[in-house]
Write a structure and sequence with these properties.
- Strands 1-6-2-3-4-5 form a 6-stranded antiparallel β-sheet.
- The two termini are about 25 Å apart.
- By secondary structure, the protein is of the alpha+beta class.
């Protein structure tokens, strides 16, 4: 998932060319058609490939429709839409689209998807949404057990490093670490080294500056612990609930339910506050900018009505 999230904001180029299609052409099927084809499934395949997943564990296909589903069924890794997905599963839709499951919370599945309005973007859907066809479940554990490939060190350049830096940057925003990573490219520089060592010191790990399995696991747990949700969501919060709220509000704006726009920074900021107040006013709720259960339930209901 870290690799998938590192691609958020990527946009296809002229004539629909993407690096995901280029990868598919160079590694899976040497037909230049794929460089410019619909790329949601190839994005999923590219992310798995970058993570070291092999054809023994998944299916690398450009199809998000019947062909792809039949391949997953043949491999024995297909589940219908009654299945509760896990992070890293592939969510398939009835109209021939596929994305990667990030997490499930409060009855909603949150995703990262390629070729969503020609870009890589976050989305979320009710688990009961009738547009969900089912899920492919790659056998990640077969690779992860005993694997020592998750090691990033000073001087490395890869999409894995980019994903590590994205986690460290989030950890800094959450106050887990004070060190800031270096520039936003895929290089492991001195800033990233300092942040990794800070994590290692903080959680009593060997301070060698190498981001291996233990260091990354500690980092992920620290982020999760610092994003614990509260009963209400309000201006200034930096929690998983505030992120979920902003995802819903962005969908509401796309559906013209509200006109205000959420702020770009992580957490609940001024733009998000304006979105909340606008929705509360339209829904006949108290306009206090504080999001409780009633506001969330009414927002979700309104989104489902427009689904």
């Amino acid at each position: 998932m870290d690799i998938a999230k590192s691609q958020l904001g990527y946009n296809e180029r002229d004539a629909g060319w993407t690096k995901f299609g280029q990868w598919y052409y160079e590694n899976i099927d040497d037909n230049t058609y794929f460089c410019y084809a619909d790329w949601c499934a190839m994005f999923c395949g590219w992310c798995q490939y970058q993570a070291g997943v092999t054809p023994n564990q998944t299916v690398f296909t450009a199809s998000a429709g019947d062909t792809g589903v039949s391949l997953y069924k043949a491999k024995g890794i297909w589940h219908d839409n009654s299945y509760t997905p896990q992070s890293g599963d592939l969510i398939h839709f009835t109209w021939g689209h596929v994305g990667i499951v990030d997490y499930v919370s409060n009855g909603y599945v949150h995703t990262v998807e390629g070729n969503y309005s020609d870009s890589v973007a976050r989305c979320c859907y009710s688990l009961d949404y009738n547009g969900i066809r089912g899920y492919a479940v790659p056998q990640y554990d077969d690779k992860i057990q005993g694997c020592d490939e998750m090691n990033f060190s000073f001087g490395d350049k890869s999409d894995g490093v980019l994903a590590l830096k994205a986690m460290l940057d989030l950890a800094k925003k959450l106050g887990v670490v004070s060190a800031g990573v270096d520039s936003s490219d895929n290089s492991f520089g001195s800033g990233t080294l300092n942040a990794v060592k800070e994590i290692q010191r903080k959680y009593s790990l060997e301070v060698d500056g190498v981001a291996g399995v233990n260091t990354i696991t500690a980092l992920r747990k620290a982020i999760a612990n610092n994003m614990a949700s509260g009963s209400e969501i309000k201006n200034g919060d930096v929690t998983i609930s505030s992120y979920e709220l902003k995802t819903l509000l962005k969908l509401a704006r796309e559906k013209s339910i509200i006109n205000a726009q959420c702020d770009d920074k992580w957490g609940f900021g001024g733009g998000t506050l304006e979105c909340v107040k606008e929705f509360q006013k339209a829904a006949g709720l108290e306009i206090d900018g504080i999001v409780g259960r009633k506001t969330v339930e009414m927002l979700r209901t309104r989104l489902l009505q427009d689904a």
